[in-house]
Write a structure and sequence with these properties.
Blueprint: H1 2-29, H2 46-50, E1 62-65, H3 90-96, E2 100-105, E3 110-113, E4 116-120, H4 121-134, E5 140-146, H5 156-164, H6 180-183, E6 188-193, E7 212-214, H7 222-234, E8 245-250, H8 263-271, H9 274-283, E9 292-295, H10 300-314
Parallel strand pairs: 1-9, 2-5, 5-6, 7-8, 8-9
Antiparallel strand pairs: 3-4
Helix pairs in contact: 3-4
Length: 318
């Protein structure tokens, strides 16, 4: 009992120290970077606003959401706070400016986060199609994976092709160097990551796991995650020479041995430091590696930060 109490005291001290570290770093380094003062006039159509003929796929800083389809997961006020990472529907995330979706499914095609489940993947597809019907030049990266501990949904690759076929940008390394205008009217890069089923084949309508990578660490300590993100990002090749998407997640994760298990208060420890992260990447010379930047509970400022750096790249300012 005493050792457990001592451990919790040590964890609280570490958390307090790490919060202070990020706060002081923000005060000394600031959150200004090329394009940081840019705000898209229409987040729903921000890619169109930048000019589809000017925006190369590998120059985009893609605002993404982590565990995207968890807005209605579990039971409200009971199990939901332990698994909910977004408060908006898929459609409203896209309208807000999100362009990368992280969807986890189980055997019956229902979306899940661990053992908790929510609506069917059909609801996700419906929201995506609604958004695409209302816009003309917005490209989406849709990552779908079988959640850890679950089996792949039967014939899921065929399901995705049947549902999204007309929008799918086929797996092709040349896509990275193309502009949005060159890919239209195709609108979706769909990365399917099964656990046991065969990976999508090269040249097919779906992309395989090797085309979307990250270095996720399981921690609730914000400075630890921040530093890890910088370290792993700096080890990547610049976006102009990569043939895969690389994701950095501005999130921290509740830990089973910590009293605070609800997602929102834990992830808020790092949530407000997205602009600081981009500024730090610039100062350390690794901003040319930043590509997909994801968060929990996405807001307009996070989207604006990603779009701002994208704008600076297009204008030759970054």
């Amino acid at each position: 009992m005493g050792s457990q109490a001592s451990k919790q005291l040590a964890r609280r001290k570490a958390l307090s120290t790490q919060k202070k570290t990020l706060c002081e770093l923000n005060q000394t380094c600031g959150d200004v970077f090329p394009g940081s003062d840019y705000h898209p006039p229409d987040r729903k159509n921000w890619m169109s606003g930048l000019g589809p003929e000017k925006v190369h796929i590998n120059k985009i800083v893609w605002p993404g959401t982590h565990d995207s389809a968890t807005n209605k997961i579990g039971i409200p006020l009971v199990s939901r706070p332990f698994a909910q990472c977004q408060s908006l529907s898929i459609y409203h995330q896209l309208v807000r400016g999100t362009r990368v979706l992280d969807i986890r499914v189980q055997e019956d095609r229902r979306v899940c986060h661990g053992i908790l489940v929510t609506y069917s993947i059909d609801s996700v597809i419906k929201d995506i199609k609604k958004f695409l019907a209302e816009t003309q030049s917005e490209i989406i990266i849709l990552e779908i994976r079988t959640e850890f501990g679950h089996q792949d949904p039967p014939e899921f690759e065929k399901y995705l092709e049947d549902q999204l076929g007309e929008f799918l940008i086929h797996q092709d390394d040349r896509v990275f160097g193309k502009t949005i205008a060159e890919l239209l009217p195709k609108r979706i890069i769909c990365v399917w990551k099964p656990r046991k089923s065969p990976q999508p084949k090269a040249g097919g309508p779906l992309w395989n796991a090797g085309h979307l990578k990250d270095n996720w660490i399981d921690t609730d300590l914000p400075s630890t995650k921040f530093d890890s993100n910088i370290k792993h990002l700096s080890e990547q090749a610049p976006v102009t020479s990569r043939k895969f998407f690389y994701r950095v997640e501005n999130t921290v994760t509740p830990q089973a041995d910590n009293p605070v298990l609800c997602v929102k208060p834990v992830t808020r420890r790092i949530h407000g430091y997205a602009r600081l992260f981009i500024a730090k990447c610039v100062s350390q010379g690794c901003a040319d590696r930043l590509q997909i930047f994801s968060t929990d509970f996405i807001d307009e400022d996070f989207v604006d930060a990603c779009v701002g750096l994208t704008y600076a790249r297009i204008e030759g300012k970054a």
